[in-house]
């Protein structure tokens, strides 16, 4: 049976950002349910934990200097990755939610993120007409390769497993 509009219903609303929400992602699954991440023009990322049939704001991350444009939950590494109009990517390790590192290299808004093919890697797309492949070392150092040649912003990135 195909889903219809009648199949879906609003289950809850999340209030907490002071400006419009620009990005939403599903986070890790806990015994209570799946975490939700939201990013806003207010420069913050919020983590929402399920409690019964509701979600409560459990953490606010404020490490970007401009609006949040994309959020990606890197399942293999358990990283929360946030992209911003400030041209940076912040990576947080889920077990403490402290910034693991801030990736710098794009010249404009980072608007897309995806898991890379190799362990501890990430791919980003930007308004600067480039995509980047990032590799994060065990000690937190980052290396990047810029993929140039696009004639417009790179709005989406993905990897194909072989």
Automatic annotation (TrEMBL):
Per its UniProt record, what SMART domains does this chain match?
A: WD40
Q: Which UniProt keywords apply?
A: Cytoplasm, Repeat, WD repeat
Query: What SUPFAM superfamilies does the annotation carry?
Result: WD40 repeat-like
Gene3D superfamilies, per database record: YVTN repeat-like/Quinoprotein amine dehydrogenase
Q: Which Pfam families match?
A: WD40 (PF00400)
A Gene Ontology BP annotation from the UniProt entry: proteasome-mediated ubiquitin-dependent protein catabolic process
Q: Which GO terms describe its cellular component?
A: cytoplasm; nucleus
For molecular function, the Gene Ontology terms on record are: ubiquitin binding
Signal sequence residues: none
Outline the WD repeats, range by range: 14-49, 103-144
For this entry, the protein name equals Phospholipase A-2-activating protein-like
């Amino acid at each position: 049976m195909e889903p219809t509009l009648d199949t879906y219903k609003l289950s809850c609303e999340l209030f907490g950002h002071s400006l419009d929400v620009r990005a939403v992602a599903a986070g890790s699954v806990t015994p209570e349910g799946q975490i939700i991440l939201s990013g806003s023009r207010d420069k913050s990322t919020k983590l929402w934990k399920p409690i019964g049939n509701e979600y409560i704001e459990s953490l606010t991350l404020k490490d970007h200097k401009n609006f949040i444009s994309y959020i990606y939950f890197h399942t293999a590494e358990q990283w929360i990755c946030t992209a911003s109009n400030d041209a940076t990517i912040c990576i947080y390790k889920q077990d403490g939610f402290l910034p693991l590192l801030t990736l710098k290299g794009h010249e404009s808004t980072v608007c897309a993120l995806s898991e890379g093919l190799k362990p501890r890697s990430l791919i980003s797309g930007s308004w600067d007409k480039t995509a980047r492949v990032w590799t994060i070392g065990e000690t937190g150092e980052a290396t990047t390769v810029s993929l140039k040649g696009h004639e417009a912003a790179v709005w989406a990135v993905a990897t194909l497993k072989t």
